[in-house]
Design goal:
Layout: E1 6-10, H1 15-25, E2 33-37, H2 49-54, E3 57-59, E4 65-67, H3 68-76, H4 83-89, H5 94-107, H6 109-112, H7 117-136, H8 138-142, H9 161-180, H10 185-201, H11 208-222, H12 230-254, H13 258-273, H14 291-302, H15 308-326, H16 338-352, H17 360-364, H18 370-381, E5 406-411, H19 413-418, H20 421-424, E6 427-429, E7 435-437, H21 439-447, H22 455-466, E8 475-480, E9 490-495
Parallel strand pairs: 1-2
Antiparallel strand pairs: 1-3, 3-4, 5-7, 5-8, 6-7, 8-9
Length: 499
């Protein structure tokens, strides 16, 4: 060992560490360092293996030991182009913050690069997507709202708004800890428990993105978070791949209906068609016939080796169009699904891009991984029953498909006058002079999510409005069934006496 050199003690089993060391070893300054892999070489007497496994160590020519971010700054000192970073790193505040950042990367060093990296980046995207969704729909989770709750069981007790706010904050904190901690298994299950609690007291919270994130997070919770557990890594990734591919397939299948073709797709195309001459605006709308099959094709393509990369590209282009249509440059609508679309793009890349070693059989049925069977039932089999009204539409990828139950609530003048002013603003007058409570806009404007499109939830909303009625006929709920290829029929009618 050259006594004039700096000695770098590093973990040779760490993919991230090896990348850094390879950069040093191939650089013009490599002669100024002695590189020692602590898994193979003897350590200095004053250091233990446990110490150097936690963080990188650098020993200078005088025998002084530097560790953590200080060790990185000592390495950068030897590179003229990067020497300024070592000076910046020594500045107040930055000097105190750098060790925190280093500890995060050190704790996750076995996942950031190498075979386990897909698991790591899946966690990051998933948690950031879920946090974004929760923040953009804060009133849905934190209470203090006018829009009615729709509990799974009618005898559940009332939870006060300040209690919901506490659970909401706890959930956000848990998700941040899951993001940071290298072994978040227990934190994930705590978060899932709170999520179940949230949904039990309000089915409106069971939004498609939340349902998807819940089961993706549950899949990560089953993982050991041991970077050498490659068998379980593959099982986890394949289970999540099944979730994502199934969502694309059913999202396309749900769109084969008259409402999507005549209303939803033309509305989504408006940000583009409005720039075309009036005589040409009709032509892009013909694509409505192809859209369902393209989206179904993406789902099928993702589970095949031959067409997988093409499906990823098609999916990213599709989400780009959706973001343009719903985003600030388009309708500026339903912002809670903006990060969801971004997350889906990133999921496609992390889960499917250049995965030639993953077969259709792997995605559908990984040996000795029971949870994949649960996912297969919930995401691939049960959505078929939504077409028979035996499974919820939002659990079957029907958002923005038009293929959901619809409803209208009509109220008397007396009920309208008794409603809180915040709710009255959502009462409109129909062409026949009736008062209609537009609870879709009410839900969007207050909660930033659509009303959950199931009859039982519509009845809960109408039942809440009935508390302002004196007579049973002052509130009338009309439920419209799912559209067929050609039309939509009235499914049922209710008043306050039969809700």
């Amino acid at each position: 060992m050259n006594t004039e050199n700096k000695t770098i003690l590093y973990d040779g089993d760490c993919p991230m560490c090896k990348v850094v060391i390879d950069k040093i070893d191939n650089s013009s300054q490599k002669g100024k360092f002695d590189l020692k892999d602590i898994t193979k070489e003897q350590l200095p007497e004053n250091l233990t293996k446990e110490q150097v496994m936690k963080e990188i160590h650098v020993i200078d020519s005088e025998g002084k030991v530097f560790k953590n971010s200080e060790a990185i700054l000592k390495i950068l000192e030897e590179y003229p182009k990067w020497r300024f970073l070592s000076k910046i790193g020594g500045l107040p505040i930055i000097k105190q913050l750098l060790p925190i950042g280093y500890k995060f990367f050190a704790a996750n060093r076995h996942f950031i690069f190498g075979g386990a990296s897909r698991i790591f980046y899946l966690k990051i995207i998933l948690v950031l997507g879920l946090i974004s969704g929760l923040l953009l729909s804060a009133k849905l989770w934190s209470g203090g709202r006018f829009f009615p709750f729709s509990p799974v069981f009618s005898n559940l007790p009332t939870i006060f708004p300040y209690i919901w706010s506490k659970y909401y904050i706890i959930q956000l904190i848990l998700l941040l800890l899951i993001l940071i901690f290298p072994k978040p298994k227990k934190l994930i299950f705590l978060s899932l428990g709170i999520s179940i609690f949230f949904v039990l007291f309000d089915q409106s919270r069971l939004q498609p993105w939340f349902y998807q994130y819940f089961f993706m997070l549950a899949t990560l919770g089953i993982f050991s978070w041991n970077y050498v557990d490659t068998e379980k890594q593959h099982a986890v990734l394949n289970t999540v791949r099944l979730i994502v591919a199934s969502i694309y397939f059913y999202s396309g299948l749900q769109k084969i209906n008259i409402v999507f073709m005549s209303s939803v797709f033309p509305w989504m195309m408006e940000p583009i068609t409005k720039f075309l001459p009036a005589s040409l605006q009709i032509y892009p709308l013909y694509f409505c016939i192809l859209v369902p099959f393209v989206e179904m094709g993406i789902g099928i393509g993702l589970v095949t080796k031959r067409f997988r990369n093409y499906a990823v590209i098609a999916a990213i282009l599709m989400h780009g169009f959706i973001l343009f249509s719903l985003g600030p440059l388009g309708h500026n609508w339903n912002s809670v699904v903006w990060p969801w679309n971004i997350a889906m793009m990133l999921f496609d890349l992390v889960l499917f891009w250049k995965t030639t070693d993953v077969s259709f059989k792997d995605i559908l049925w990984t040996r000795n991984f029971t949870f994949q069977r649960v996912v297969l039932v919930l995401f691939l089999i049960m959505p078929m029953f939504s077409f028979l009204n035996l499974w919820d539409s939002y659990l079957s990828s029907a958002l923005y498909s038009g293929n959901t139950n619809n409803a209208r609530i009509f109220i008397s003048d007396s009920v309208k006058q008794k409603l809180p002013s915040e709710v009255q603003t959502h009462v409109i007058q129909t062409i026949t002079g009736e008062n209609e409570l537009d609870f879709y806009m009410w839900s969007f404007e207050e909660l930033n999510v659509p009303a959950y499109p199931e009859t039982r939830v519509y009845k809960d909303i109408a039942r809440d409005i009935c508390s302002f009625a004196t007579h049973e006929d002052e509130v009338r709920l009309v439920v419209l069934g799912k559209p067929t290829v050609f039309n939509r029929d009235i499914e049922a009618m209710y008043n306050c006496s039969n809700l």
